[in-house]
Amino acid sequence: MNLRPVQATIAIAIMLCGPLLHAGDANTKKEVFFGTTHAHSSWSIDAFGLGNQKSGPEDGYRFARGEVVTHMGGEKVQLKHPLDFFMMTDHSEMMGTAPLMLEKGSVLYSGTRLDVPDLVRD
Fold it and tell me: Which of 4, 72, 76, 117 is 20 to 30 Å from 19 by CA-CA measure?
């Protein structure tokens, strides 16, 4: 888009000031929401190392919705009220590899070393 300087200035002013024109219409009702923006499942190596070796992301979402889930200690747990928001923030590094350490027959359980010499060249 090739705007002249005056038109560009007006466009920027409208973009910046436009929301202020509607400030009087803002919802004055004060609402409080409860939830978490940082949760890990057994897919993250740190949570796995701290004892969460069975609860995957699906368990975290079920718990946040107020459903009964099994805690890593074995007991059944449930929130009194579901969360208003929830974010599963598992780490991308080594995602999902930790549970393989306990899965019989997996490469990590058996101690077999993964070699990929064809992928690494000098």
Answer: 4
Q: What is the pLDDT of residue 119?
A: 47
Biggest alpha carbon–alpha carbon distance for the chain: 70
Q: What percent of the chain has pLDDT over 70?
A: 72
pLDDT of residue 3: 55
pTM of the model: 0.61
Q: Which tokens is 104 given? A: 């019989």
